Fold each of these.
Amino acid sequence: MRTLIKHALALTEPKSGLVLKGWVRTRRDSKGFSFLELNDGSCLSGLQVVVDAGIPGSADLHRLTTGASTVVEGNLVASPAAGQKWELRATRLELVGEADPAYPLQKKGHTLEFLRTIAHLRPRSNLFGAVFRTRSRLAYAVHQFFQERDFVYVHTPIITASDCEGAGEMFRVTTLKGNLDENPAADFFGKPAYLTVSGQLEGETFACALSNIYTFGPTFRAENSNTARHAAEFWMIEPEMAFCDLQGDMDLGEEFVKAMAQFTLDHCQEDLAFFGKFVDKGVQERLRFVVERPFQRVPYTEAIGILQRSGHSFEYPVDYGLNLQSEHERYLTEQHFKSPVTVFNYPREIKPFYMRLNDDAKTVAAMDVLVPGIGEIIGGAQREERLDHLRENMRSHKLREEDYWWYTDLRRFGTVPHAGFGLGFERLLMFLTGVSNIRDVVPFARTPGNAEF
Ligand code: 4AD
Ligand code: MG
């Protein structure tokens, strides 16, 4: 494999005959030599290359403008310049691909909105390089967390016929032309099919066989909400544990978020420092806080009381039986608790059919983890493992039991208490990097009216 700039910068001794390849960020010409700043995306830092006039290939130097690609061979030597350990004294230069003068990343300081319109080029900017390296490392950290704890990774289907969340925000998958409802049986799967909103139901079947499982994959929601924290396509992590109750579920959620914060502090230092400098001044301190302090836990009913007594005027009403809106979630975590907080035991009417009814017969064993800056990052629950209660829930949610026959079977054949949650990977990334719009932590965001690239 070729030497990446990250490897070169990590060397402890000078080295001759290095070959490095990348894109030119800037070029400065002096009398008799030029400086190139070369970046290959392997790390935030670029490498300063000193090109003396007359070396092989230097006749092409004027064509090495910002954005052009090049191969440089040379010797890695201690740099006299401040702030960098090494520089490369080029012995040979090769132009690979010129960049048209229209290259849109000429200057620093483009707005995030503008950079979204060039999503094919923005990974070459400092910010987006850092975001997508961090995304990659955290994807690895997710697997590491669960694999180390003997959770089995399950690939749940992307195409499904069941609406897990019952919210009806699903994208239809069809080969039919014309009126889709005229003869659904003639459709490809013999019935209406959709892109999944959650792998949970299928995940439960595997937990009821392999004990502890997790999924990690793309998830789709046709919510027409153009907010900074909703995407039509996002990645969800869904662990599910057999022989586990709500308490164990909340414990895992907290342990997981803490582990991701610790991993970012330990393994994404250079990029995290960049976020701390240019995106969110408090990000490192926040991550340390998350790692060190236990999350707060509060029942829904108490959370409603806190909000009602707060004296704060909210746009949406606060009352028992109503959903917590983003502004309420953020008030709880940012103003009141000043910490991540897990809200649990929600009214049964506002939660999906699969959640376990509590002994008060009013609330279900649901839990949401709320974090500062974002609000809900995790939604989970202990599942209803009692067949009669589950049937009753399905009836009250107007679901047809025959559509979920395989799901109810789990309650018929060796049912067990079990629990799990879903965590939106993009929201986790927003929380850990300080990037405030979900569109900027997805390589190619899918939002209402936008499927470019
Ligand atoms: O709270 P949700 O809807 O829960 C479920 O889907 C459960 N079936 C999960 C489970 O128990 N296995 O979604 C879970 C998380 C949310 O907390 C949020 O982080 C994320 O998924 N999420 C979204 N992220 C980005 N864009 C959207 N439109 C999202 N909708 C949910
Ligand atoms: Mg939720």
Amino acid sequence: MHKKTIVELAQGLKDREFSSVELTKYYLDRINKSDLNAFITVTDDLAMIQAQAADDKIAAGDSGILTGIPYAHKDIFCTKGVKTSAGSKMLDNFVSPYDATVSHKLNSEDLVMLGKANMDEFAMGSSNENSYYGEVKNPWNKTKIPGGSSGGSAASVAAGLSVFATGTDTGGSIRQPSSLCGITGLKPTYGRISRYGMIAYASSLDQAGPMTKTAQDSAIVLNAMAGFDEKDSTSAQVDVPDYTANLNNSIEGLTIGLPKEFFSEGLDDVVASSVMAAVKEFEKMGATVKEVSLPNSAYAIPTYYIVAPCECSSNLSRLDGVRYGYRCEDPKDLEDLYLRSRSEAFGDEVKRRIMIGAYALSAGYYDAYYLKAQKTRHLISDDFKKAFTEVDVIMGPVSPTTAFDLGSVKDPVSMYLADIYTLSANLAGLPGMSIPAGFAQNLPVGLQLIGDYWSESKLLNIAHQFQLQTDWHTKEPQEN
Ligand code: GLN
């Protein structure tokens, strides 16, 4: 049952092979038996109520494709009446009084939320080892990281603890864990999905998206999540197409760009050979391959690790122990309240980023760091603009290595190197995907697709066509 996709389960519900209540119980049971630590909160009671409501809709003939499907919601989306922690001690006591727009949209599809998925604290991390609630394990090998920051979401889908999950991607957090856990993850164009009620990390980079077994499921979930929202001034007034409509288009004549900078030093040979084998598969399907250059992608890491900390230092300043969230015991004055609440509740990585951001934004340093980073960001976007005059899609690796051992990467700068191939798409605001493309060392390898602005339909089409020819996306880890 847990191997089935949204499309298959929706058919089963429609044909009354099982009810949503049965399906939900089945998944809750799997979650309760799992030791992956993929969830921060399991919402059993709420899930059963939603499942019953979904069954009533199905009985009344008033259901859609997502009615009654159980999913995991990253714990960064505000959910009314349910704890929303963002993986932090700071928000361990925070029960959101309102729904994020994404939560609201998913509720109106009559989905069943099984719980809130574990994540790196405030989405800062590449390995899901920065959660206040403990590390998440990779279902393919429990001594390995699942990737971050949406590691709970990825592990949950890969291990069959939910049919799909939501994620957010500021610098790779949907694509990278999807790659390391062998699932399909999509980060849409910046502005495609509302950020309202999604706890902000770096506002000019954050974007939500679906994490699913297949590209077809991804299209279905994106249909539900996307759209303009007047509550988010950065959400775009661009029409939402039916993302399932073009999945079956032929990709014959497609021009694929391979950036030479994505295949240089630092990329594991085993990852490179899976990626190249996937590209060969596309050639068999009638695509042509061309080398392109993204010369400024060399600056993606330094640029991102200025922009993101600057924005986070500003966003996280609201968490001061006064209004909501953690407050220290017996503060002796206001300064002590701020200082101790924040020192006691934020983890090391979050503190590091706040300090870097506050420093880079301070008078005298702003021009040297933030302004410079904004300029470099432009150059990175321009490289893509140029490349997309020559090719339809860019392909490459998602992560330079397969999933590494839990606890093995100790210094922050080495950890940041894991983001080398994903950050550029966020800096430019472009859509990107990770699709299962092979195995190395018995661990999944993902292929990254990067498209031009608003080309989600095309990316999903390309990914779906690949999944019709290959079976990497159907592989399942041994029972957990
Ligand atoms: N690993 C990157 C970081 O730590 C990206 C995280 C994300 O996309 N949320 O900032």
Amino acid sequence: MSSKDNPSPRGESTEPTNIVIFGATGDLTKRKLMPALIKMVEYGLVHPQSRIIGVANNNTEAEWRDLVKAGLEKYLDDGAMSEARWRSFSAMLKMVPGDLADDDTYARLAESIETLGGRKNAMFYCAIPPQWYPAVTRGLRQAGLISEQEGFRRIVIEKPFGMNLQSARELNGELQTAFDESQIYRIDHYLGKESVQNLLVYRFANSIMEPLWNRNYIDHIQISAAETLGMEYRAKYYENSGALRDMIQSHLMQVMTLVAMEPPVEFTANAVRDEKIKVLRAIRAIAPEDIERMAVAAQYASGVVEDEKVPAYVAEQDASPDSATETFAAVRFYIDNWRWQGVPFILWTGKRMKRRASEVMIRFRVPPFNLFDSHASPPKANALVFRLQPDEGIVLRMNAKMPGLTTDVQRMVMRAPYARDDMYVPEAYETLLQDVLLGDATLFSRADEVEESWEIVEPILEQWKDRFSISRYRAGTWDVPEMDHLLEGCVGGWHKPT
Ligand code: BG6
């Protein structure tokens, strides 16, 4: 292995575990879970005595193995899938065929859970549509697979975690009747991204930022995820979701909590989550009459993205031709506490935008007095940009003297890439799977966080659900004029990633 291949393990080792995947033939398993697991096995982050047990209907074990292999050939990002590599990984694979609604499936699963290294540890990964979570929880409980007497038992739940506050509460209730909260891992893969975790390190491992990190110096903050992708094959899900649910309620609000939270007393799951929930509780409720002013919804029309002609959202497979589902959403939030009173947090996301980039942009106040007034360009407000992806890193925009005989001011941009080319940067799923195996829930959402974030967006969802029309932007552009109104009064206006 080169140094790039060395993921610098955290010094703790994982125990041999039965890694059970519900939805073993699904897209998430193929694209994300298996590529993460094979690397983790090779790096020693998954104990070599572990087993990966796929649960799925309609496939024989041989067919499933072929699917996994084909998926690895397509999605592995660290080199070719050699026969030797496949042979050693596939020795860990085992399949339990069966319907998730059938009690026998869980009885057979219970039989297949092995004693590994003296314990029967099991992690249950729900890579399935959320409507199946209650059936799986019930099945596991009935088969006696939840008790931790013989080893740990942890359940991993993917988003969407409910479709609104009520369904999220029901789901939490269902899970909590079977599992203790400490056994539940609600994944938000944004929290597994290296650059997102770096937000915490940047804030709390440097002393120079803290004095500036508040309403006295910051004008506003924009947290964004612009994508160039359209629907691919997901319009069926997206029709009932839309951008507000899909990205803002989950990923972007989680990022907002990391940007806005107070320093936790220690870096443990509950200490960090206790601070995050305080941020969510302090978010000002948006009154129905203010929603039009505080939120923007739009949908992509046809256009050209990365030199390719792409269809309008309404022409995507499985989208309704008169759909008013938003593929772009933005909300202006306020956090009513001492640190952030009056500072707008603008969260926005869009599909089929001009460029793919996720960022946190902190815009500072303009200098209180312009000493260099008599010359061409006045100093601009400083901006600190955390590029979450791609090209992870930090950019600081400063003012500096323009070389020459005047005191004209020019914009100076300082860039700090997050990792050197020879460094290993794990994928979000590698980090999160390892955390589940280690029992570290710091990067997972707690029940109260999920419910609180639904409660915050609920009034907007309510108002948007009955709309018949929606404004359109051309795919491949930033053409959402409503954003200028949403950012009214914010220094520098809408920040589009460059
Ligand atoms: C998912 C959303 O949670 O995140 C997708 O459902 C979105 O619609 C994806 O494309 C974005 O993730 P990433 O890691 O590509 O930014």
